[in-house]
Amino acid sequence: MMAGYNARSLLAPWVAVEAQATQALAGISLDSRRVERGGVFLALSGSQGHGLDYLSGVLAAGVALVVWEPVAGLDAQAIDTQCRRAGAQSVALPALSQHASAIAARFYDYPGRQLRVIGVTGTDGKSSVAHYAAQLLEHLEGNSAVMGTLGWGRLDALNLSEHTTADPVSVQARLAELVARGVRSVVMEVSSHALAQHRVAAVPFDTAVLTYMGRDHLDYHGSVAAYHAAKKRLFAVPSLARQVLNIDDAVGRELAQAAAAEQAIYRYGEAVDADYQLTALTPESQGLRLQMNTPSGGVDAHLALLGRFNAMNAVAALAAVVEDASPSAIETMLAKLQPVPGRMERFVASARALVVVDYAHTPGALEAALRALREHTAGKLWCVFGCGGDRDRGKRAIMGEVAARLADHVVLTNDNPRQESPESIIAAIRAGMPAQSACQVVLDRVEAIASVLNQADPADAILIAGKGHETEQILADRRLALSDRDTVAQLLPRQVG
CA 272, CA 109: separation in Å to the nearest integer? Predict the structure, then answer.
């Protein structure tokens, strides 16, 4: 819901505003395409330009208030004059990018305070942990939701998301809508970009979860150290009451040692000092048998999931949301967990190879997925993947090395080449593969998948990695409708589970 602020009352905590406009503001946006007549436009300074680049358009749309971020070269008087001529008020607010989340939270009457908000971050596993946690919450109390890469909302009615973590205004708007729908708990994937850009600065996280830390997005952060520093911001949120940390990870162990004394710390992993310690994992025909120690006792459960890392994701979700449950109750809950679309998702057809579609797009995720699938493979292991263009170039050779080392057959194809030459991306991947490594190159992704399905024997397994749940392929000049999941389902004579 909206609290009915005018310009002066909305911005009172940050800047004094002339009382020239007293009407309630109709909406708030930092996207010039989505402004409302009588609403607020937040004009932020970003790496790709400034929100004021679109000032004429938002004024023509009838906004009542323009709040803008001062930077060198902007003429405050000219901006104010342009706004006044259009009947709008302009307010310069230094460091607006850092305050946007709080302004939006105030506009929507602080919706996060009415929810239990669980934040999940890490290099890999965020989507899986978030969805497993939401499933567990739904079992325990109902009225749970998720916000992340696969969408936002109730699990049975997700709305599409453009980013893992939305912009600061959209985050607050979505939290407000979830409150209006009666949601009690929300599990939110929190990206390094979102943390670095203060998109969730005003979200009152109750619990923070760390999955696994590797490398990603170095095109943005510049270094692994800067990337890790951004992730760590989630664990410094003042509202935190509970941290759930992967104690097998160096960053997780570091955070556990630095945690505030008043916070509840739950360590998970295989280490002997883990509160939720995975002690044994056995591959089964339809999933995994998991044994672990918990604060309430030993657990022996079946998981309808593939991969050690997925078992660890399930354990992380359990530690994040379950308190004081008996071992038998935990076993029942874990057995009910369902795979996340595009995350080690199985496709099985009679007399055909097992096919698994996974979002693995980092070296660590690709290695984990291949190792996991090897345990379920009687014959040869195939790997179909590529790397995204205009993204971290340093990981391409590493992923090539991983695929060559762990798969029996590698087929390189397009991921999302964007503005880069597909051939140059493939060459960068191959640079990490031993010279004697044989691999096929089939740039058309559908043709690559079809080729492997035709070549593989029934005892083989095929990992199609990189795009997971995605339904588009981004090329230099267009977007193509393309889903690995749909492609496999159409090419196999029958899809099962």
Answer: 44
